[in-house]
């Protein structure tokens, strides 16, 4: 009753106060329109990298160790996943597809482990992980006890089709492996599996249907151990989940969060009969360890070209709309706040040539490719440029990057849980070196970049191998790094990378263009984080023609702000007093379960705005419509599992 008696005084005081109040600084405002550089009329903003800006002297950034060798020069199709993992004691687990002779027959899955005490791999050649006559396309995950789990597809002696499987070691880091297949689905050959392991030690896999619509299917694997702690088997309760998600190519990837039961899977799908027009990246998240899944979300949501727009007199930049499309690869990782990050490659669906004012649908060719790598964050829903590179047919020499390749591609993400920095490796081709076999395939190097602000801005990439393949060289000197992947965690101040050194650029398992079959090394590269420059930064560009997902440039780099708030904050609603609508804003440092409720002065609940809602880290804004309430003082209370805060607001009709 005392509060009610002070009503008139409080209103007068509040009116004086709010008259001077400013809009909360965290409120997001629409960004100005920006372009990717590929739109008609914006050609002058596109930079065209040509070759290298540094010497080629075979200098390795960090320390390099030989894992094994292979005659097979195709480790992954589409998305790469993870062929390297680090356990909590610092042992490094690496897997690869090993062609044992120049005919790649037999071809098996191999596994090796790097011992941090001796700084050597435990085997000079590695250990076979699959059973039967053939295996390949492997990922690896490790549990808290140091057991490595290669996940791959194989053909057993008793069957003619390939099946996805996981191998379990008899003892941790021993290399005595036995494979357990995922029960097949009738009529489907599900292969090219990717895998991750969650905080409970459960394996999560996605495999792709061979041929047809390339549907992606999910399965959970539960490792079993004997009472003595020996690896016994991997059980697949329920097998593959059906129906699978429609996809394009083997692009699906899967990731598990470090501190919760969140599991994510993402893939690329083109829902149009016209190449590239309908291609988008989709994802969905399970909050309960893969038992149930949330809705499928179109992450990129590219606007398609309006084919009638120009004929009706429309502006080309508006009619063409989004000029980029996703390529055939992506990479995922959860950060230490259990928020999802996805990196992906894009190609210019529309491209331009110097002196040519016309713009035409691209479609992929072996030349004329504008390629970029982008990063997306669940916490902010922003897209940021990671890397770009161009090689066009206006160059005097007729080179190619081989089948299913872009000039810059195959991102692989890692997270440093100590600093929160994100790292991304990628493969980059250039015009400074190529092999001397038709059609003169360009060589590539392994690059690394870092983001210190949650992925909003990325440093220009660093060539971490500087391999001198030379110009117009022949095998085994036309050296080209490929199948570059990072372990998902940075440990001991080091980023952990694996790659294949192909001694003749190209993919020899493809007939045209393919290069020459060579015996190639698989390497583990241990890169100190201090050796990766954090500047200069890549330019800020928009992925979409209308700047949807454009990063908030009001948060200047270096001013102490990050994309994820540094503390929990509940702000005063705005406007206040209000009639009848207002907005309640709060900041979350990490993903949390949130309740937001409104009470009158007698403590009676009059509205529920959020009820145990699971929200991501970042700025949250909740509208409140009080049309049904009477004028007066109200309180809004925000509750999370660790914090409770209450603020006062005034409804004045």
How would you sum up this structure in a few lines?
The chain is mainly β.
How do the helices and strands line up, and which of them pair or pack?
Elements (H helix, E strand, L loop, with lengths): L1 H4 L1 H12 L44 E8 L13 E3 L5 E8 L7 E9 L4 E2 L5 E2 L5 E9 L5 E8 L7 E7 L7 E5 L8 E8 L5 E7 L6 E10 L5 E5 L17 E4 L6 E8 L8 E8 L10 E2 L17 H5 L3 E11 L5 E9 L1 E2 L8 E2 L7 E9 L5 E9 L16 E8 L6 E13 L7 E10 L10 E2 L16 E7 L7 E9 L17 E9 L40 E2 L10 E8 L3 E9 L4 E11 L2 E8 L6 E8 L4 E8 L2
Antiparallel strand pairs: 1-31, 2-3, 3-4, 4-5, 4-6, 7-8, 8-9, 9-10, 11-12, 12-13, 13-14, 15-16, 16-17, 17-18, 19-20, 20-23, 21-22, 23-24, 25-26, 26-27, 27-28, 29-30, 30-31, 32-33, 33-36, 34-35, 34-37, 37-38
What does this structure look like?
This protein is mostly beta strands and 653 residues long. Strands 2, 3, 4, 5 and 6 form a 5-stranded antiparallel sheet that branches. A 4-stranded antiparallel sheet has the order 1-31-30-29, with no helix packed on it. A 4-stranded antiparallel sheet has the order 7-8-9-10, with no helix packed on it. The longest helix is centred in the N-terminal third of the chain and has 12 residues, at 7-18.
Number of strands: 38
Shape field: globular
Strand content: 35-45%
Give the overall pLDDT as a whole number: 82
The biggest beta sheet is recorded as: 5 strands, antiparallel
**C-alpha Rg, in Å?**
27 Å
Helical residue percent? under 10%
Helical/strand content category: mainly beta
Terminal residue distance: 22 Å
How many separate helices? 3
Which residue ranges are poorly predicted, with pLDDT under 50 across at least 5 consecutive positions?
A: 1-32, 40-51, 352-368, 553-563
């Amino acid at each position: 009753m005392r509060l009610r008696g002070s009503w008139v005084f409080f209103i007068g005081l509040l009116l004086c106060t709010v008259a001077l109040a400013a809009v909360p600084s965290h409120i997001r405002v629409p960004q100005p329109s920006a372009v990717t550089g590929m739109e008609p009329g914006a050609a002058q903003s596109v930079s065209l990298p040509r070759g290298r800006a540094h010497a080629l002297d075979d200098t390795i950034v960090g320390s390099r160790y030989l894992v094994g060798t292979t005659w097979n020069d195709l480790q992954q199709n589409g998305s790469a996943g993870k062929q390297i993992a680090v356990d909590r004691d610092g042992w490094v687990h690496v897997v690869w597809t090993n062609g044992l002779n120049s005919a790649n027959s037999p071809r098996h899955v191999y596994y090796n482990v790097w011992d941090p005490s001796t700084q050597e791999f435990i085997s000079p050649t590695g250990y076979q992980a699959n059973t039967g006559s053939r295996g390949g396309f492997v990922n690896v995950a490790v549990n808290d006890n140091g057991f490595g789990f290669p996940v791959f597809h194989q053909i057993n002696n008793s069957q003619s089709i390939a099946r996805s499987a996981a191998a379990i070691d008899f003892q941790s880091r021993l290399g005595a492996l036995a494979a357990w297949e995922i029960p097949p689905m009738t009529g489907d050959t599900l292969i090219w599996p990717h895998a991750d392991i969650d905080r409970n030690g459960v394996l999560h896999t996605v495999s792709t249907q061979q041929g047809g619509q390339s549907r992606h299917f999910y399965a959970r694997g539960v490792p079993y151990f004997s009472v003595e702690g020996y690896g016994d088997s991997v059980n697949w309760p329920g097998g593959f989940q059906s129906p699978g998600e429609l996809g394009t190519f083997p692009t699906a990837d899967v990731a598990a969060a470090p501190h919760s039961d969140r599991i994510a899977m993402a893939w690329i799908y083109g829902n149009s009969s016209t190449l590239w027009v309908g291609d988008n990246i989709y994802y969905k998240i399970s909050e309960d360890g893969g038992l149930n899944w949330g809705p499928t979300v179109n992450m990129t949501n590219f606007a398609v070209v309006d084919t009638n727009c120009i004929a009706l007199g429309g502006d080309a930049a508006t009619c063409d709309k989004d000029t980029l499309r996703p390529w055939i690869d992506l990479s995922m990782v959860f950060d230490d706040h259990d928020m999802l990050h996805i990196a992906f490659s894009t190609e210019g669906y529309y491209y331009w040539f110097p002196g040519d004012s016309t713009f035409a649908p691209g479609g992929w060719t072996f030349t004329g490719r504008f390629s970029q790598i982008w990063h997306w964050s669940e916490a902010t829903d922003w897209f940021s440029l990671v890397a770009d590179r161009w090689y066009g047919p206006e160059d005097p020499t007729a080179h190619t990057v081989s089948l299913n390749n872009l000039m810059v591609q195959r991102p692989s993400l890692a997270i440093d849980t100590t600093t929160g920095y994100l790292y991304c490796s990628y493969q980059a081709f250039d015009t400074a070196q190529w092999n001397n076999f038709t059609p003169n395939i360009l060589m590539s190097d392994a690059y690394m970049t870092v983001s210190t602000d949650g992925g909003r801005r990325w440093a220009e990439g660093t060539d971490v191998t500087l391999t001198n393949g030379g110009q117009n060289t022949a095998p085994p000197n036309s050296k080209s790094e490929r199948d570059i992947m990072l372990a998902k965690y940075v440990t001991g101040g080091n980023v952990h990378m694996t790659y294949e050194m192909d001694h003749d650029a190209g993919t020899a398992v493809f007939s045209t263009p393919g290069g020459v079959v060579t015996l190639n090394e698989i390497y583990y590269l241990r890169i100190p984080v201090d050796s990766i420059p954090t500047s200069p930064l890549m330019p800020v560009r928009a992925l979409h023609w209308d700047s949807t997902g454009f990063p908030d440039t009001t948060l200047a780099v270096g001013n102490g702000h990050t994309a994820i708030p540094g503390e929990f904050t509940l702000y005063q609603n705005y406007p206040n007093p209000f009639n009848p609508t207002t907005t309640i804003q709060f900041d979350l440092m990490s993903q949390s379960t949130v309740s937001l409720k409104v009470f009158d002065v007698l403590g009676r609940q009059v509205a529920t705005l959020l009820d145990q809602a699971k929200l991501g880290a970042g700025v949250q804004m909740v509208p409140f419509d009080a049309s049904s309430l009477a004028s007066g003082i109200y309180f809004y209370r925000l509750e999370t599992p660790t914090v409770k805060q209450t603020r006062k607001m005034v409804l004045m009709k």
